UniProtKB/TrEMBL annotation:
It is found in: Cell membrane. Gene3D superfamilies: MetI-like. It comes from Murimonas intestini. PANTHER family: ABC TRANSPORTER PERMEASE PROTEIN MG189-RELATED-RELATED (PTHR43744), SN-GLYCEROL-3-PHOSPHATE TRANSPORT SYSTEM PERMEASE PROTEIN UGPE (PTHR43744:SF8). Residues 70-262 form the ABC transmembrane type-1 domain. PROSITE patterns: ABC_TM1. The chain crosses the membrane at residues 12-33, 70-93, 105-126, 138-161, 182-207, 244-268. One of its GO terms (cellular component) is plasma membrane. This is Multiple sugar transport system permease protein/raffinose/stachyose/melibiose transport system permease protein. Belongs to the binding-protein-dependent transport system permease family.
Amino acid sequence: MKKRRMSGPGVFLSRGLLAVLLVLCFLPIMIMLNMSVKQHVMIANDFWGLPRSFYWTNYMKAWKFILRPIMNSILVCGISLVLILIVVSLSGFAFGKMDFKGRRVLYMLVLAVMMIPYTLQIIPTYNIVSGMHLLNTYWALIIPYVSGQQIFGIILAESFYRELPVDMFEAARIDGAGEGYSFLHIALPLSKPILATVGITSVVAMYNDYIWPTVAMTGGDEIKTFCQIVFNNAAGKGSNDMGLLAAAFVIGTVPLLIAVSSCMKYYVQGMIVGAVKG
């Protein structure tokens, strides 16, 4: 039996609205790509016009300009991600599958931390990092990132581990396996989708963060992150070559695109599992 195609004013209106939203979403990206292959003079004189010839020099200049900041961001995100996944997997398993005194109280405290706005934590975090003499070091970013990004991951992992069948862990205990063996050989291999979801959301948030690096990294440009360097120059604190800055933005998004696309399969699985079990 053939399905009857939906028609009517509502269908055309919804599709038209969807098309407008898609254009609005992709328009800034297209403008950025267009600017990245134009000279600064052409951008100033004919902003909306297409380039008469591609000015690839912008990308060569941008590569030298942001290579070190991109490597700084990748280093910070890489170390932070490893620590976040370790903490999230262990804490999620402890809250989801282990019964110990004070478990509910500790979990409620973790939930309470999520209710505190990010901006209210900046000054206390700065005082702590300053007291530890870590300002203008990579650890000034890594430690706050690990402590802040783990909260959402713990809640997501706890929900996942709690819904795993109890029979698997009981069978492992009968065979003499302890909690550590059950975690490493049963729970952890099954939690790839959830950990991928936590990893992607954390990396995107850390790589795109501008506020905290600006507060904690006030030294030379050699230790600053990608967003710091590019956003500062875009705000007028440095180069005013808009073509160069647009090319820098394009190059800077490549590591993030690679990281997200490589884990997209597990990310979608983790979102589905979290939606069903959460």
